[in-house]
Amino acid sequence: MKITKLAIIIVTWNKMNQVCLLLKDLNKLELPDINIDIYVVDNASTDGTQSYIEKYYSDQVKVLQTGSNLGGSGGFSCGLQFVSKLDYNYIWLLDDDIRLDSLALIPLINTLQNYEEVGVVGSQIRKLQKPNAIQEIGSFINNKKAHLKVNFGNQVNISTEDILQGKPYVNVDICAAASLLVRCKIVQNMGVFEDYFLHFDDVEWCLRVKQAGWVIAVNPHSIVWHDSPDFKSRPWMNYYDERNLCYCWQKHRPELLLKRVVVSFPRLVYYAATGRYFLAEISIAGFQDFINGVQGKMLRKINYTEYPLGEIIHEPAKVFVQSSIYQDEFQSQNLKKIEVDEKVTFWPLPNKFSRIWLWIIAWFWKPIDIAIVTYQHPTLDVLNLAKWVYYFTGNGYVPVVINPLVLTKAVMKTSNEMWQIYWQIRKLKLSSIPEIMPTPLSPLVSIILCTSNRPNCLEKALQSLELIHYQNFEVIVIDASSTNQTIEMVNQVSSKNNLKINFLQVEPKNISYSRNMGIKLATGSIVAFFDDDAIPPSEWIEKLLDIYAIHDEKCAAVGGTVRDLTRPGYPLQFHRGITNLFSETIAIRSADATNYNQANGLWFNGLMGTNCSFRKDILEKINGYDEFFDYFLDETDVCLRLIQAGYEVHYADVVIDHYPQPSHNRIDQKHLTCWYSLAKNTTYFAIKHGLTRGLFPIFVTRLLLLITYRCWLRIIRLKFTHHIPNSVLIKYIQQTIEGIRVGWKSGMNLHQVN
């Protein structure tokens, strides 16, 4: 059995007790065939951390001294730089306030050993104060807020099976360095953390790794608990949040940089309007230091006070905290019970008369500050509260001043400063995203858009590709328009947005022919399709490629969900749909529904052309799209032939927003004009694939019922919903009959030839 060599890096600053608890947890880990070395990076602690470790753990732990407080980013960088030069397979990064399950390491190791596409894997992080509550299972980029969206945040009692949904791991954008296992060779190639001091250093590093083509994963079987009380962090954290997030977006997502300023504006004005200008001032300082290129530890002095618990106890008129705060079992090891009881008695919630009186005093005497803080959970961590009770924490309201004139002045000052910041950042030269060379883990993807006389829709679709995270793609537009408006628009978009577009104009309005021409022009190993009246999310390509990476070479096609944004409630049009050999379709199924990839099966996995992709080489093996399908059932036929050839079709959890627009096939979503194609292709598909699978009378009966439901009943319904004249209805029915005739004849010819 091959021995795995693992280095563990813990960064600490004046948290000796928590480091010792973590070291005890590490000694309890199950470590089959794993050799570990533990490195504690000490940011010049003054609480005796180094001497304690050297006294009690000298044979297990090596202490690396930084000489000064370099923050989390500097500490981890120091440790990574040191151990990456040594002979290790993996490196495990841990925060000093993490507690470990005895099986926390094994799932992480197994993920990296079994899935070569994964470069970094994190743990399911839970809250130490609420052991069944999830703090995060990785994060995603939130494009609307230009921030992060925590995955499964604050959810309680969620099973690992529900989290994984049949997958080996959860694919995310970012994993927190609180518990992060990484391949040593990635550190050697990618380097260490940026000098952010605190916050978003792990975000930037994960995005750097992801852009290099690696998958960022979370294995929820690995569970750790984070010592994170349910109150907001210290106000000065806002400085690092805004400054470092700006650096991160400037480097990796330039389009989100200005959006972050815009999104922050209402919040900072709100702070100023509610007597907390100091909070707005701290965030503004973060923006300004980003503009000035300041990194590392904050050099500015902050204009507020953090009160130690002792001051609050001895000066109860200064700050009031609600009395529903007491210790849990873990904290009782660190604080004597009697001390906690005494402190609780000094935390009464002031009555209404006292509050009114204090407000009156605060109006005239500014030095008195009132903080009435309400905590959501009574099991708040008293140990942390005992260290510092923050000037503004939790879900509280802290008025520094309530004079209307002063509040108005603060709002105006905040607005003016944010306006200046906006224009200063706008003038910055944003760094471009580095070009990525194609590798097996980051293949070239050919995005093919087929269009016809819808230049306005196509323009929005092309502009949406500017926000795609994955950078190794090409764009191909196949145009069946009858005018030159589309090519003129494409040229404008291409020159304006620096988007290289391969354009081809074709004559027949046949979707299968257009897609085959796009496939011929494609140079990528994966061809991806979406409609010209749809908008893909920024993570679209990554999500598709993740599924190809998870499954073996039998995976020939991957598609996702389609959502209709023109209807109330935004209903799904397609989600993990399946189709049978007659083309009867179940378009929406649950996430845990059975896959149908059996070559001889009656039902099979299908995709919707608005959100689908294929391996080009396999698509060419089956001769691409059948051009008899001019519209409707084209990708369904492809999926069935792929499965019958021994390959598989799979689904990705990625949703494309569809805005169905009028075309030569429909006036609106209910008033179709393509009845000939629907009847022709339904008949042809059923004969092509289902004729020999049963008795002929049953086949004919089933086909007629399907055409009745799919065509004739819908045509009759138009009489009542759209008040269509009888002459038009008769024409539609005649088109349907002609479609049946042509489809029948062509389908039967296939069997005669075969």
Topology, pairings included?
Blueprint: E1 4-12, H1 16-27, E2 34-42, H2 49-56, E3 61-65, H3 71-83, E4 90-95, E5 98-100, H4 105-114, E6 118-127, E7 134-136, E8 139-142, E9 147-150, H5 160-164, E10 170-172, E11 179-183, H6 184-190, H7 201-211, E12 215-226, H8 237-252, H9 257-273, H10 277-291, H11 309-314, E13 320-321, H12 329-332, H13 337-345, H14 352-364, E14 372-373, H15 382-387, H16 404-427, E15 445-451, H17 455-464, E16 473-479, H18 485-497, E17 501-505, H19 511-521, E18 526-529, E19 534-535, H20 540-550, E20 555-564, E21 572-574, E22 578-580, E23 585-586, E24 603-605, E25 612-615, H21 616-621, H22 634-644, E26 648-658, H23 675-690, H24 696-721, H25 726-753
Parallel strand pairs: 1-2, 1-4, 2-3, 6-12, 13-14, 15-16, 15-18, 16-17, 20-26
Antiparallel strand pairs: 4-11, 5-12, 6-7, 6-11, 8-9, 10-12, 18-25, 19-26, 20-21, 20-25, 22-23, 22-24
Helix pairs in contact: 7-8, 8-10, 9-10, 9-16, 10-16, 17-18, 23-24, 23-25, 24-25
